[in-house]
Amino acid sequence: MTSPTSGGDREKLTSKLPASLRHTLKIRAAQLSTDVQDAVSDGITAWRIHSEPLPTVDTAGAESFGTWLPEGLYDEFKQDCATRGVSYIQGLAQSVALWLEQNPTAEESASTRRILVCNQKGGVGKTAVTAGLAQALAEEPRPAQGDAEDTVGLARAAARSGLRVLMVDYDPQGHLSHQLGLRAIPAGSESLITHMLNREQAQTPLMDLTVVIEDKRFGDRLRILPAAFDAFLLDSGLTMFRGPRHAALERALASLEPHFDVIVLDAPPSLGLAMDAAIYYGRRRDGEKPGTSGLVIPVEAEDTSAQAYGMLINQVHSLATDYDIDVDQLGLVVNKYDSRRGYIATSSLDKWKSLGTPPVLAVIGDLKEQREAVRLQRPLLAYAPESDQAHNMREIARRLT
Ligand SMILES: Nc1ncnc2c1ncn2[C@@H]1O[C@H](COP(=O)(O)OP(=O)(O)O)[C@@H](O)[C@H]1O
Ligand SMILES: [Mg+2]
Fold it and tell me: Would you say the CB of residue 179 lies under 6 angstroms from ligand 1?
């Protein structure tokens, strides 16, 4: 590795890399719409904060390789290589290998479902559905109807396992985090937003920022990535973002996907660039079965909800056209339904049902357990596991699996 020469706010790195790694790196970066220099910078940053020893990469016959790093990173990397007693070539090879591992192709991570709970209207139940659905998916399996009647059925129930589920609190208001007893990450501290907008400054792997929701019924399968106060600045940050802004969320969450079967995202009540990045993240990936990932839309049985739904769908359609993607609407949840409100409520419900696509996954009443669980900052399925609301959430989970 030769000395760096200055190149604006970047420095030239000249080293060697095995041809196969270099080839895979180029292809993967193109697949993820990332520059090779950003991929290498991210890999080196991840390598520097990686606490476990990494496997040695065979660098015999490595060929010359050059790229540009953010100013200062080269010196820090050199120091770390010396401290760890590895050559720069080995350090670079490990960094690139680590980046490839943490940034799988869409096909490799196709098994992680992405569910976006969204509606720009506030108060319709996005947060309630995100939390309930995630808990129902992660919950220790319960015998299905009929299972308990024979030993084969019981064995079948035991063999099913709850899923590894991540809730992402993507709403700057942080209601989801708060309801589960967590504070939003304070302004200026590292968060999902850092990993989206300033990846090279990130010091902590995103997985380390996730928090386990402790309850025996979830094992250690249910986690949350708490909200960040800085999310208020996400839309303006994305306006100035120099990379592919629509893929900013996907790139940030890629390293988490190998750890989870499902990622459920509590979307903000807005239709800005942050939401575009979320919709893009929920698109149907190459090779993914239709209806696996996509949008779950809580609505109410009233006219303003229908208008809001129309606006959301317009945005989804224009994004789908711009990026030539498919975004599946997995279903609607008609929430806080009260037929005693009369004709407006009943006729609105009929309209939602008559859409057919997306299907109505559940019709949920105005239920006290939902509000109580929120007030007590307890997961609904732990607080009132046999309540109608808990069963509604299990029904939504069942309809989606
Ligand atoms: N089915 C329900 N029954 C009773 N209260 C509900 C129900 N769904 C949501 N709520 C309450 O309504 C309020 C708004 O719901 P929330 O999920 O925060 O909406 P959003 O995330 O769309 O703004 C919260 O206080 C929540 O506890
Ligand atoms: Mg909310």
Answer: no
Pocket test for ligand 1, best of 117, 127, 368 (most atoms within 8 A of CB): 127
φ, ψ at 32 (rounded to 5°)? -95, 15
206 close to 304: Cβ distance less than 8 angstroms: no
pLDDT of residue 287: 85
For residue 97, the CA-to-ligand 1 centroid distance in Å is 44
Q: Is residue 364 lining ligand 1, measured as CB closer than 6 Å? A: yes
335 lines ligand 1 (CB under 6 A): yes
CA–CA distance, 279 with 23 (Å, rounded to integer): 31
- Could you tell me if 132 and 189 are in contact, meaning their C-beta atoms sit under 8 angstroms apart? no
Name the CATH superfamily, with its identifier, for domain 113-400.
P-loop containing nucleotide triphosphate hydrolases (3.40.50.300)
Q: Ligand 2 mean position to 361 CA, how many Å?
A: 19
Residue of 118, 312, 369, 370 with the most ligand 1 atoms within 8 Å of its CB, for mutation: 370
Mean of per-residue pLDDT scores for the chain: 90
The first and second tokens of residue 122, run together, are 């506030």
Q: For 304-318, what is the mean pLDDT?
A: 94
For residue 85, CA distances in Å to 21, 69, 81, 150 come to: 22, 22, 6, 60
pLDDT at 332 over 80: yes
Taking the CA of 372 as reference, the closest ligand is: 1
Looking at residue 59, its pLDDT comes to: 93
Domain ranges of the chain: 6-102, 113-400
- Give per-residue pLDDT as tens, 189-218: 999 999 999 988 888 999 999 999 999 999
- Ligand 1 center to residue 209 CA distance, Å? 26
The tens digit of pLDDT for each residue in 232-250 reads 999 999 999 988 899 999 9
Determine phi and psi for 327, rounding to 5 degrees.
-120, 115
Report CA(296)–ligand 1 centroid distance (Å). 15
How far apart (Å, rounded) are the C-alpha atoms in residues 123 and 240? 30
What is the C-alpha separation between 292 and 110, in angstroms, rounded?
A: 9
Token pair recorded at residue 338: 């009260």
